[in-house]
Structure to design on (432 residues):
């Protein structure tokens, strides 16, 4: 049966949205009772996100704010005789003007680029990038100017995370973390880019920094030649289904045929945890015979203090009717003999998924995971950790464009001690 949230207009969407918001707040209420300021801030953010319906682009006929830097730039160009101003040849700098009017002046200045000096040209280029949408509407091409103005693109997010873990017979522990992330991407040429990631994490329980102040998590060059992709430096690496690795390594990876029926990846790197370093080498072969099915096999050789571990794994994903997916896999460390820690498997059924750009989009999943600690080195999952096994369910929802909430719940046991545990994870992310 195909689930449709639009069967009765927007009522089901609104119900789901309000339920998601209410559920998130009710679970956090106890933990935040003594943190009134943070509770109010989070509540406001959720209500605003839930109530939003549209984000409009800048209106070309709205006034450019009086304190906008463009006024100074235009005034300077007007003084130099480059910008002619209004139709009567004057520039009335004391008056606010619309973005459309500003774009008209910039367009006239662009027509004189061969008559200006280097400083004036740089000023015109910056104005052209600022009012590119209005200039495009006027039929003025500015794409080349934008690429010259700024070949570094910035993305990032602000994320609040809540984690509550309850072990059998032990009082629950809670974590409240605030993470700020910046990810610059700089274009070097047609084949190479430089990418990086900077993370700052804050423990709001104690109002202290976590893992230091700001950490460089990634810094690498990414090359693309035909069907070959190369990463080198402090690189990200994600193994099949994220069971073995979702981590950053100092090293390099080469992928051939990423969009082909058959592709392969070689990776070699080093990771330091505390005072101990581990070396990792691996290979992943992925087969995509149809749009619906993907299969993969992988091997990793990891060493810590001279002790080598050989990890083998297979995985598969089957997409069902473009709205659901079933994936699963099995991994084993053939160097370790202890069956409690040398095996891992993962089975997950997913329905849809929240899309960052698409308000009201959502996703649901249910999974059983067993993550032996000699196999799951740095797994990707939020609610279940290495050395644990059990059921995990959850979902995510896009409250508004670039505002995504996530809830996950895990119920299971610690593999070696057989201790019962459950964990709740909640997250609210603001992307930019």
């Amino acid at each position: 049966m195909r689930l449709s949230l639009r069967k009765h207009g927007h009522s089901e969407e609104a119900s789901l949205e309000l339920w998601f918001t209410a559920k998130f707040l009710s679970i956090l209420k106890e933990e935040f009772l003594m943190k009134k300021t943070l509770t109010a801030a989070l509540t406001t953010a959720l209500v605003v996100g839930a109530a939003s319906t549209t984000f409009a682009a800048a209106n070309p006929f709205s006034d450019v704010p009086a304190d906008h830097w463009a006024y100074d730039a235009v005034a300077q160009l007007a003084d130099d005789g480059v910008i002619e101003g209004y139709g009567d040849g004057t520039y009335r700098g004391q008056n606010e003007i619309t973005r459309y009017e500003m774009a008209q002046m910039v367009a006239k200045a662009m027509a004189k680029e061969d008559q200006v000096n280097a400083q004036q040209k740089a000023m015109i280029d910056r104005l052209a990038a600022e009012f590119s949408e209005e200039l495009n509407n006027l039929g003025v091409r500015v794409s080349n100017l934008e690429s010259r103005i700024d070949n570094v693109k910035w993305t990032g997010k602000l994320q609040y995370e809540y984690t509550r873990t309850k072990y059998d017979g032990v009082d629950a522990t809670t974590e409240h973390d605030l993470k700020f992330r910046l990810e610059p991407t700089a274009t070097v040429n047609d084949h190479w880019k430089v990418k990086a990631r900077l993370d700052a994490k804050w423990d709001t329980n104690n109002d202290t920094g976590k893992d230091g102040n700001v950490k460089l998590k990634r810094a690498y060059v990414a090359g693309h030649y035909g069907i070959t992709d190369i990463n080198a430096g402090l690189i990200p690496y994600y193994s099949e289904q994220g069971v073995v690795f979702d981590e950053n390594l100092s090293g390099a990876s080469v992928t051939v045929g990423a969009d082909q029926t058959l592709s392969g990846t070689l990776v070699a790197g080093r990771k330091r945890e505390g005072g101990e370093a581990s070396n990792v080498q691996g290979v992943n072969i992925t087969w995509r015979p149809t749009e619906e099915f993907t299969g993969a096999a992988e091997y990793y050789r990891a060493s810590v203090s001279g002790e080598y571990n050989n990890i083998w794994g297979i995985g598969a994903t089957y997409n069902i009717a473009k709205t659901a997916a079933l994936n699963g896999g099995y991994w084993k460390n053939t160097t370790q003999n202890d069956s409690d820690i040398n095996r891992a498997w993962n089975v997950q059924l997913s329905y849809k998924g929240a899309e960052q750009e698409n308000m009201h989009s959502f996703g649901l999943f249910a999974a059983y995971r067993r993550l032996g600690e000699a196999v799951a080195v740095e797994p990707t999952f939020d609610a279940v950790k290495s050395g644990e096994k059990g059921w995990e369910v959850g979902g995510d929802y896009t409250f508004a464009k670039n505002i995504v909430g996530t809830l996950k719940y895990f119920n299971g046991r610690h593999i070696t001690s057989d201790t019962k545990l459950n964990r709740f994870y909640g997250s609210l992310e603001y992307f930019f």
Summary: Confidence is low (pLDDT under 50) at residues 1-13, 31-57, 86-93.
